[in-house]
Amino acid sequence: MNDAAIPASTTPVTTEHFDVLIVGAGISGIGGAYHLTQQCPDRTFVVLETQAGFGGTWITHKYPGIRSDSDLHTFGYRFKPWRSAPIASAEEILHYMGEVIEENDLAKHIRYRHRIDAANWSSADNRWTIDARRTDTGEAARFTANFLWMCQGYYRHSEGYTPHWDGMETYKGRIVHPQNWPDDLDYKGKNVLVIGSGATAATLIPAMAADVGHITMLQRSPTYFRSGRNAIELAEELRRLQVKEEWIHEIVRRKILFEQDAFTRRTFDEPEAVRQELIGSVQALLGPDYDVATHFTPKYRPWRQRLAFVPDGDLFAGIRSGKASVVTDEIERFTATGVVLKSGRTLEADIIITATGFNLCMLGDIDFVVDGRRLAFADTVTYRGMMFTGVPNMAWVFGYFRASWTLRADLVADFVCRLLNHMQAKGAHRVEVALRPEDQDMKLLPWIDEENFNAGYMLRGMHLLPKRGDKPEWAHTQDYWNEKDEFPAIDLDGAEFVYG
Ligand SMILES: Cc1cc2nc3c(=O)[nH]c(=O)nc-3n(C[C@H](O)[C@H](O)[C@H](O)COP(=O)(O)OP(=O)(O)OC[C@H]3O[C@@H](n4cnc5c(N)ncnc54)[C@H](O)[C@@H]3O)c2cc1C
């Protein structure tokens, strides 16, 4: 999808009003829509989505092998059992989401090909005015809403992040970013270079290995990987016993979450032991002669970046087969036929894939204005990573790095629905979060603690993100295991909530 291709907008002819407007039809937006129908059945709502279909991440990314890197028991919704292998393809995830839409009659609430450009809050009317454009016709569409539920994810869907290297323009082959995978890319028998070593590279390489001449993963620095069978034995056993799918989903979620919690704690309590385990298991998969010290031994502590799961060790099988290889070095410059590395080594390639990440996008690249003043989210303080000081009647779903995103999408949805019902019960038209007297001297910090999580896209975009305080109320703690108990217990009449 290319925003530049969207026709210029016309003047809107009508304005439609909804109680709630959800931005985005990805896993968060569809989840939000479901929860509204269950928890706030008398509220009207609409979901606006730029793309031509639902799925968000899973419709945007079309590169070979595209799959989840966390299990679908927890990446799936808590209310809809996942019945297949835990690591799922984009197609399977889209199918699952499609069932949620169909089973709950959500399609009538979704407007595709509507790109929101501007959101204006008026305190005089206590409502948002949303200006959108039809991406097919360029027609302008205006909506008003009492509450804005931001489910637009965290990165720009129209294009991924590609750094600039000297000489790039001289390269005669094709440069492709996985986020904009061309339908006509023919890599059969070709020499392919993948720049990057995150989950995307780890997915692409085994998926392409059988067809290419050779595929090289070029990384500046190594990443941690976990590997295992793409199956959950407990789920298989329960299925054999003909236990109901709803039960299996719940039991397996609990098991996974219990184990993830234990693992995450270990990465903090005994990082060196975990590090050795992770590296040791890669060595076992690649054999004793493979140079794991150079290529699979990261410099950072485990979990400071998302840990990529390699189902059935397919990346390592690709390397063992000789079809794929890893080079750990830095690019000095591009040439007409490949790249020259800082070590002086050259890598020739017919196709270069830049698996170099995302462009962080603050709230859907929408121009936000509150009572005539343009909003800079970096000037706000976040309430638990879901609301912002000075921004009335709005919530944002930002998931977890170390646990499945959807765990938080479900939790935030419960919170938003509870808040909407609370407002209705109070007769309130507006809710805003504000620092309490005891928070006035609170130290304001960047959204994410770099020591805790240091993914490139977050660091590149940190200056755009809201501030956090040093209390859990004023931070996205990234801690599902606390939030699952804390969120339902939030006192909506606490001093941090200001109603009007
Ligand atoms: C390749 C890949 C694999 C991933 N795998 C996992 C995983 O296994 N587990 C995990 O927990 N997380 C994973 N993530 C993170 C993932 O993005 C989230 O987990 C999740 O899919 C986000 O869902 P979302 O609905 O919040 O946002 P998105 O999936 O980003 O969807 C947002 C939607 O909002 C729309 N939108 C944005 N701006 C506007 C606007 N202005 N107007 C209208 N519509 C707009 C977009 O078009 C998009 O469809 C992965 C990410 C990527 C890129």
Which helices and strands, and how do they pair?
Blueprint: E1 15-23, H1 27-39, E2 45-48, H2 57-60, H3 72-75, H4 90-103, E3 110-111, E4 114-122, E5 127-134, E6 140-150, E7 174-176, E8 191-195, H5 199-209, E9 214-219, E10 225-228, H6 233-240, H7 245-269, H8 271-286, H9 292-295, E11 308-311, H10 314-320, E12 324-328, E13 331-334, E14 338-341, E15 346-348, E16 351-354, E17 367-370, E18 373-374, E19 382-383, E20 387-388, E21 394-396, H11 405-426, E22 431-433, H12 456-461, H13 480-486, E23 497-499
Helix pairs in contact: 1-11, 5-10, 6-7, 7-8
Flavin-adenine dinucleotide is lined by residues 23-29, 48-51, 56-57, 61, 68-70, 75, 115-116, 151-153, 157, 200, 364-366, 397, 399, 404-405.
Please give the alpha-carbon distance between the first and last residues.
Answer: 40 Å
Estimated share of beta-strand residues: 15-25%
Helix-strand makeup class: alpha/beta
Which ions and ligands are bound to the chains?
flavin-adenine dinucleotide
